[in-house]
Amino acid sequence: MSETRVKIFGAGSIGNHLAHACRALGWQVTICDLDASALERTRSEIYPARYGAWDDGIRLAAVGDVAGDEFEVVIVGTPPDTHMAIALDQLERSAPRAMMIEKPLCPPDMRGCSELVTAAERTGTFIGVGYNHTLTKNTQLAAAWLADNPIGEISTIRSKTREHWAGIFGAHPWLAGPQDTYLGYTDRGGGAVGEHSHAINIWQHFAHLTDQGRIVEVSAVLDMVETDGARYDRIAQLSVRSQSGLVGTIVQDVITEPAKKWLRVQGTTGFVEWEVNCDGGHDAIRTRRGDGAIEETLIAKSRPDDFRAEIEHIDAVLRDPKAAEQSPVSLQRGLDTMLVIAAAIRSNAEQRAIGIDPAGGTSLDALRTL
Description:
By secondary structure, the protein is of the alpha/beta class. Helices cover 34% and strands 28% of the residues.
């Protein structure tokens, strides 16, 4: 069993999921939060309700009480508009070997991103962003199938994460609605375009797998809602173009029930489909070569499995730095997703296509009006 020491910022839903995954590897876990009531809620409600009992091996602490402690891994599971300050502070204080930041990486203004890249290079810390669908077994199987089964010229990639956010509020019953959290504010990293940006990220992942390059053009329509002081997009529809010229679509919303998390890579002689929670207990891939029949593979999974894959990936990076070189959750991949989010918001506001310069850096300076 590993003696890796991990500090998790945030005693909310994500913090509990990742704490449980870390404990499965035998890691020494400290969850810290600014809110004492959040720490007590973790001990008495969230963790035992999900996993059957509280784990006395988890240390709960106020943020200030662990400021001087040393940890190999830091996990930032707080709202997006706090990520940069926490991450930069931790890199300055202790330079952990690895850091995982929950998605989306930051608000769409992308303030602090350039500084984060510089700090990561200076400290040698591996930084990942929590787009854990890129690490799950159905993604790995889809990638392996594509490698062994050419499907002709790639015609398009389409992805969607359409999921009513009632499930999110069910996991956070202390919140009355989106106005009580960053979720209700697109400019804080919430709304459909931020919170459900798994669809953008998984599109990008499969574009990399099929040598289509990065997204360089975005045209978007966002359905904006203003209620109870909140302002967020409930539907985000993106048309994108990659460096290779591939055109595809991405749809994200917070209103669809039951949820649909799906992607298809369409080729001229076949396709592969990828789906999350296709029947509540399984992920899936569906494949077709030429004129053959569609074949479906089901992969049994539970919600904790998503987070186990994420922490197992961090463990692999700690054991072998080479695992970081092509990491699908790398900081660069998270920054690429943030640039698409920012471009979508600008495209909707200006009602025109927005370009992304692949060599334009890690700030909004990479965006340009087409």
